[in-house]
TrEMBL record:
The keyword Transferase applies. Its EC number is 2.8.3.16. InterPro entries: CoA-transferase_III_domain, CoA-Trfase_fam_III, CoA-Trfase_III_dom3_sf, CoA-Trfase_III_dom_1_sf. This is Formyl-CoA transferase. Pfam families: CoA_transf_3. It is an enzyme of class 2 (transferase). Transmembrane segments: none annotated. GO terms for molecular function: formyl-CoA transferase activity. The keyword Transferase applies. The gene is frc. Keywords: Transferase.
Length: 412
């Protein structure tokens, strides 16, 4: 693990200016990715309470530990966007920004006086990333939605469970805000795509709007579900720990009670697996001769594999399987991840000093890594509410205004 270097201000996005007008997860995650890679991100939060995520997850002295990473590398300021003086300051920030990111319900940004037409007038060639539940158009655009709703409507929630003949329990979440995070990734991807277009066509000074829907972000992750339905009429059903498109690829219980994942989901890997199981006859069995056949007879095949795995410990099996280059693994907990030599060797987890919490905190490193070594960095952990008000806003104030007065007026 490595300690963060707060003086590192370089990265592939150094010089890019981003204004974050979002809250909760999707827009802040999008902007954190940009900030990690060197962009200057100014995050606008409501006065006093700040972003609601400051009160989410495990707490230390009533401070969110998650915020340490969620808000990192951002300059946090407060603005009450319902106040006209705050809107005036926000417009000045827009004028300095290459990218503006928001995730309000459609129409709310306009109600603040910061809609697309206003932004385009203030900052030609600006990129506006708009992340919402259902997108900026369509009959559902005004519906309320969080990540879990996006996951449900996008189709992934239906698939995260067991077949009904095994369990009638409701499908489960992934355990993290996967819908918001994927939408945030698309937001960052869309922003940088639009930025490339802007720089390729500098004479076109129109506003570029990146319209990201939580539902569609999840929908894009559904592999072949949509084309398969269009051709066959079949609805892909939950398959538990298996994958309904390939076999064998499942979790198998071992002698020590630990489950391991085995992904021998190609014909050559399946032959190798049959060899290490000392059941070569399975490789030539007509029921398992092709992937489509193995999927058809998946339950029979999995029974054969389970009979083998339950006779050995998980460590024994992993050693056997890895010697034959068969993809396999235990299911990692965060403790396993923190202590894993692969993650350590790539410095994928780093120790960050969090002055807000007053402790050192482990965080995932900025991703991705670059071959030239000009990677992103954690320059500082998530700051306090309004920590950068003076630094960011002082130069933007009108004559006669000062921060303390604006705070008393409810602007900051």
């Amino acid at each position: 693990m490595r300690e963060s270097q707060s003086d590192m201000k370089v990265g592939p996005l150094a010089g890019l200016k981003v204004l974050e007008l979002g809250n909760y997860v999707a827009a802040p995650f999008c902007c954190r990715l940009l900030a990690d890679l060197g962009a200057e991100v100014i995050k606008v939060e409501p006065p006093r309470t700040g972003d609601p995520v400051r009160a989410w997850g495990e707490m230390l002295d009533e401070k969110s530990i998650w915020w340490s990473m969620h808000g990192r590398n951002k300059k946090c300021i407060t603005l009450n966007l319902k106040h006209e003086k705050a809107t005036a300051l926000a417009k000045k920030l827009v004028a300095q920004s290459d990218i503006v990111v928001e995730n309000y319900r459609p129409g709310q940004l306009e109600s603040f006086g910061l809609g697309p037409s206003v932004i385009e007038k203030i900052r030609p060639s600006c990129i506006l990333v708009r992340i919402s539940g259902y997108g900026q158009s369509g009959p559902y655009k005004s519906k309320a939605a969080f990540g879990s709703i996006g996951e449900a409507v996008g189709g992934i929630r239906y698939l995260t469970g067991y077949p009904k003949d095994i369990s009638d329990l409701s499908s489960v979440r992934t355990g993290v805000s996967i819908g918001d995070n994927i939408a945030g990734l698309y937001g960052a991807f869309g922003a940088l795509s639009a930025l490339t277009e802007v720089r390729t066509n500098p004479t076109d000074t129109s506003l570029r709007i990146v319209d990201v829907a939580l539902t569609e972000s999840i929908l894009s992750m559904l592999d072949g579900c949509i084309p398969e339905y269009s051709v066959t009429g079949k609805i892909r059903e939950p398959a538990g720990p298996a994958l309904s498109t390939t076999a064998p690829s499942n979790a198998y219980r071992c002698l020590d009670g630990v489950d391991i994942l085995i992904a021998a989901n190609s014909s050559s890997l399946f032959i190798n697996l049959c060899s290490v199981m000392e059941k070569e006859s399975l490789a030539s069995d007509p029921r398992f001769i092709t992937n489509s056949k193995r999927v058809e007879y998946m339950s029979l095949l999995d029974t054969e594999i389970k009979q083998w795995t339950k006779q050995r410990t998980s460590n024994e099996l992993i050693n056997i399987l890895e010697k034959s280059n068969i993809p396999c693994s235990k299911i990692f907990t965060v403790e396993d991840i923190v202590n894993d030599p692969q993650y350590k060797s790539r410095m994928a987890i780093q120790l960050v000093r969090d002055n807000f919490l007053g402790i050192d905190v482990l965080q995932t490193a900025p991703m991705p890594f670059f071959s030239d070594g000009k990677n992103g960095s954690v320059r500082w952990a998530g700051p306090t509410i309004g920590h950068h008000n003076k630094e960011v806003l002082s130069a933007l104030l009108q004559e006669g205004d000062d921060l303390s007065m604006l705070e008393k007026q409810g602007v900051l």
